[in-house]
Write a structure and sequence with these properties.
613 residues; mainly beta; eleven-stranded antiparallel sheet; 34 strands; elongated
């Protein structure tokens, strides 16, 4: 959404406390020469809205009075900075009275509750420095807590809830532009390089009218822009197995005596500066994170060992389940050296099974399974931004791209059916702020975003197909409790692409105690998905005797087209007023209208009970 509250406000009075109308108020950010100005109204009040975030020097001039200069006025995104009451003294305008801006403990100039962390503050915090995820910063703020296992969404470091609202309701933005995954919620692009962030800002409640359709928090990551001084950074961080210890699971269930070898390297470069001083600035960067890790995975559920499977096939050589197990079972997939767990090795007698020669089935060797596979993680990010400004216009264009791949990351490694998760996306945005008059400013934004995520394929021979080959996958096998089947979850493979087109506009007009806002946010999303759980069918067995004899209790399959062409129009219009009723009370008044339109997608499930296959 358009952030329309990044403004400076105050009141001008004379030495007797009487209001001073018609005083000229000018602000200047020395780092970029970004400016803003207005005239105090009949009540002495002034507001300068839609400023670029930064640190400004403010001056007030009026014929017959000495000039007042306020140094170090900090402007954050989606928040109001009040400089309070500024007193003009009679004298020559060439004489300057200089004061230093002070931070207020309680912000009474706006109803919206917003917390902002600047780049300087972020750089001092240890919880985000190695690409751990910027949303770790959110849990430091009042009213925000980690959602832990109650969070079903993507997370940029940690899932969190604001004021008890579930984590899926958080609105994720980059530079005020949409960055949401419309499937599972959470961010579409995971921006974690603190060197690229000018400000991390979270609005938690009492939303301004431009945010009024939100119920959870609004997270906005503001990217860094260049300044009049050239500056560059390069960094490398490394975390490895040499400084780690075994987890309880590795000790108790995997039988490991030392930490598997791994290495986590995060590095990057960035540079920013002026192309034309005071006019055109650039900022660009690249980073990558590479983890060439290995996962040792196991199951305590019982699976026939290779010797046990031979015993079963000698008994029932034509059992469809056993023939499939010999071809697709965990020991048929050799990658990662699958081995029976010695601690769970056991001989079991399966009652009720009659062999094809009429004899009873003897003891069968079972055990859990353990396998080790490489699970490397790689992510690459590119950022480019150009800012242009002149007396009444401030324009910037920004491009962000991310690619990632996590091999064998999902599903089960032990079974030989892990699922790789390649993903990524790109965002392009254009932002134009136009000063129409001393009291009126308009901000327009145009953006395009594309994110994608696939769950399919792997490094062991694509035992789980890519989403584009979903029909070539295996059925899902469900065995009785305590036993391990084979194959993979019926929810795989799947994949999605999210194309998001967004147009925003916000007009802000200040008059006395009023800041009137009107705007729109028009979003169109087209998301071709490949996803249909149970598309290849599933077989359920109520007992091991039925499993061995290939007599399923039920067979089910979902019938429908797995290619879902999801489209949605989100149209949002609003008008509002931030009215400063008293010195310590600001009322946020507004009216908004939102319309969502999307087509439906139909499929149905067939349950085929008591059928063999």
């Amino acid at each position: 959404d358009v952030c329309s509250s990044d403004l400076i406000q105050g009141t001008v009075v004379d030495s007797t406390g009487a209001v001073v109308p018609g005083a000229e108020v000018v602000v200047l950010d020395a780092a970029t020469s970004s400016t803003g100005k207005t005239i105090s109204d009949s009540t002495g009040a002034f507001r300068i809205p839609l400023l670029a975030i930064g640190t400004y020097d403010l001056t007030v001039t009026k014929q017959g009075f000495r000039k007042v200069s306020v140094v170090g006025v900090l402007v954050n995104s989606a928040s109001t900075t009040s400089v309070g009451t500024l007193q003009l003294e009679v004298g020559q305008p060439t004489t300057v009275v200089e004061v230093t801006a002070e931070s207020v403990l309680v912000e009474s100039s706006q109803a919206q509750i917003t917390n902002s962390l600047t780049n300087a503050a972020i750089a001092q915090l240890p919880i985000v420095g190695q690409n751990e995820g910027l949303d770790n910063l959110a849990v430091l703020l009042p009213g925000v807590n980690a959602s832990r296992d109650n969070n079903y969404s993507n997370s940029n470091g940690v899932g969190f809830t604001a004021n008890g609202i579930r984590g899926r309701n958080n609105d994720q933005q980059i530079d005020g532009q949409n960055n949401n995954d419309n499937s599972v919620a959470g961010p579409g692009i995971f921006l974690g390089n603190t060197d690229w962030v000018q400000e991390y800002q979270v609005t938690t409640s009492n939303f301004g009218v431009e945010y009024s359709r939100n119920s959870g928090s609004v997270v906005n990551i503001v990217t860094k822009s260049g300044t009049n001084a050239w500056h560059g950074d390069a960094f490398v961080t490394e975390n490895s197995w040499k400084t780690a210890t075994l987890t309880n699971t590795q000790k108790a269930f995997e039988g490991l005596t030392k930490v598997p070898i791994y290495n986590d390297e995060f590095s990057g470069v960035s540079v920013g500066g002026p192309v034309v001083k005071d006019k055109i600035f650039i900022f660009a960067g690249f980073d990558n994170e590479i983890e060439p890790g290995t996962t040792v995975d196991s199951t305590g559920n019982l699976e026939p060992t290779p010797a046990g499977l031979q015993t079963l096939l000698s008994c029932l050589p034509n059992s469809g389940t056993l023939l499939a197990l010999s071809k697709y079972g965990p020991y048929a997939i050799k990658a990662g050296n699958p081995q029976p767990q010695a601690s769970s090795l056991t001989d079991k007698t399966i009652a009720g099974v009659t062999c094809s020669n009429g004899s009873a089935l003897g003891p069968v060797e079972f055990a859990g399974v353990q396998r080790s596979l490489p699970t490397p993680y790689k992510i690459y990010d590119w950022l480019g931004r150009m800012d242009y400004q002149r007396s009444k216009d401030r324009i910037y264009a920004r491009f962000l791209r991310q690619t990632s791949n996590y091999e064998n990351a999902d599903g089960s490694v032990w079974s030989g059916f892990p699922v790789s998760v390649p993903g990524g996306g790109l965002q392009g945005g254009l932002d134009w702020t136009r000063t129409i008059s001393a009291n009126m400013v308009n901000n327009a934004r145009l953006s395009y975003g594309r994110t994608f995520a696939n769950f399919g394929g792997n490094s062991v021979g694509n035992t789980v197909p890519d989403p584009s080959n979903i029909a070539s996958g295996l059925a899902s096998i469900t065995t009785p409790a305590g036993y391990a089947g084979f194959g993979y979850s019926s929810s795989f493979p799947q994949g999605r692409i999210i194309n998001s087109y967004q147009l925003q506009d916000n007009l802000s007009w200040t008059h006395g105690k009023h800041t009137l806002k009107a705007g729109t946010n028009l979003t169109y999303q087209r998301s071709p998905n490949v996803s249909l759980s149970n598309y290849n069918g599933s077989f359920s067995f109520s007992s091991m005797a039925n499993y061995i004899e290939d007599v399923p209790t039920s067979i089910s399959i979902t019938v429908g087209n797995p290619n879902l062409d999801f489209r949605e129009h989100d149209n949002f219009f609003y008008v509002g007023d931030d009215y400063k009723a008293t010195k310590n009370l600001t009322l946020n008044l507004g009216l908004s209208y939102a319309y969502y339109g999307q087509p439906g997608n139909l499929f149905h499930t067939r349950d085929l009970a008591n059928e063999t296959g």
